[in-house]
């Protein structure tokens, strides 16, 4: 198996393999170029070209490689390109202050943009797995019931014939974890690359433990496709999918300087024809130089280059990118989602609690200025949105197996419409928890049961009859159609709940799980 992976890594082309010593204190920058060589062939495999043709996606300049002449000129000037991005028409490099000035004067350079080396990676799960044999603890089990996983199993949907790219931190012990042994036994890992230590073979990630976060990718992979045959426990939905793995995050340093690793990884996966990506990473604010950190106002879907790359992947490459929303919900200095979850075209996944299906405290919320809903959906996770996103990635893989001809945007819409609060979403949990039964009906163009009800209140108080066996239910009090003022739990008394309008409250969403009631106040 190791020989197979190593041989495949050698055969596959990569956008630059220069070693990038992680201990080098020299600041890292993006160097953006003005143009590309006209007529250059696209840097895509035959599989990727076929996928584009099937999806009727145009081959354009973003598919052509960075100009070799520009790279030669930089090298001659003493600059060593690290990652190359054909999408952004840029390379990353470590530059001294003097080199920045010289590079800015080069005629083919459009801009030089710093990559802050002191930024928090926001979406890692709260605690690592205790051992490689149990990468996901039993607390993940409730989410399988919540999303109706048995419905997919009954339909024979296991992610078979679907290829998934995972961009994450380390994958320590992945090849020996009981939940992942079936994947390795059938050679389901096609290739693995380390973009942090570029001089290391990717398979060394199974043995390299630089920090406890090096378990993170292993946990994520298990949440997508884990199936422990010895214990007869299934952790993920996409048990028969195949995978490309990439490490873009160093983990123990938690710095934004690895955004270029993420861009390189997703472009590599695109070049191979991968359509579905899980990335349980996010970038928020820094720890040492506030002037260079992201601001909450910059979580707008287009300020960060990583979000611009993610949006480009969604719009022009037909890729469905599923991203963890972030774990800053209880951080009063931030609270909102991180980038690239802010990009409109990605599917951002928040986290719910198990009992009420409302937002669990740590789950990041959507920024109010955004003209679109974030997060898109949510599901239960005890250990962070890092483990809710892969659950939905497995959900998406099952849909792709059933209807491979659907576009990324059609799949995203089905996942949203299958969620239990649709169409009354909010910036706490999006449209809520995707349900397999609803998604399967939507795939078959069958009518979905009408579980949403709109009620117009006539005064400041309303009494609603509800059909539920629960003694209390979740309520979202909103200032408008999507923005939550607060969430609360209200009691059910004699088959009814009583609501009194709050100050500035325009709408209230009552979540009965099997039904959603939207109250519009006068």
Automatic annotation (TrEMBL):
<protein>
    <submittedName>
        <fullName>S8 family serine peptidase</fullName>
    </submittedName>
</protein>
<dbReference type="InterPro" id="IPR050131">
    <property type="entry name" value="Peptidase_S8_subtilisin-like"/>
</dbReference>
<keyword id="KW-0720">Serine protease</keyword>
<dbReference type="GO" id="GO:0006508">
    <property type="term" value="P:proteolysis"/>
</dbReference>
<keyword id="KW-0732">Signal</keyword>
<dbReference type="InterPro" id="IPR023828">
    <property type="entry name" value="Peptidase_S8_Ser-AS"/>
</dbReference>
<comment type="similarity">
    <text>Belongs to the peptidase S8 family.</text>
</comment>
<dbReference type="Pfam" id="PF00082">
    <property type="entry name" value="Peptidase_S8"/>
</dbReference>
<keyword id="KW-0645">Protease</keyword>
<dbReference type="InterPro" id="IPR036852">
    <property type="entry name" value="Peptidase_S8/S53_dom_sf"/>
</dbReference>
<feature type="domain" description="Peptidase S8/S53">
    <location>
        <begin position="162"/>
        <end position="432"/>
    </location>
</feature>
<feature type="active site" description="Charge relay system">
    <location>
        <position position="168"/>
    </location>
</feature>
<keyword id="KW-0378">Hydrolase</keyword>
<dbReference type="GO" id="GO:0004252">
    <property type="term" value="F:serine-type endopeptidase activity"/>
</dbReference>
<dbReference type="InterPro" id="IPR015500">
    <property type="entry name" value="Peptidase_S8_subtilisin-rel"/>
</dbReference>
<feature type="active site" description="Charge relay system">
    <location>
        <position position="216"/>
    </location>
</feature>
<dbReference type="InterPro" id="IPR017317">
    <property type="entry name" value="Pept_S8_subtilisin_bacteroid-2"/>
</dbReference>
<feature type="signal peptide">
    <location>
        <begin position="1"/>
        <end position="18"/>
    </location>
</feature>
<dbReference type="InterPro" id="IPR000209">
    <property type="entry name" value="Peptidase_S8/S53_dom"/>
</dbReference>
<feature type="active site" description="Charge relay system">
    <location>
        <position position="386"/>
    </location>
</feature>
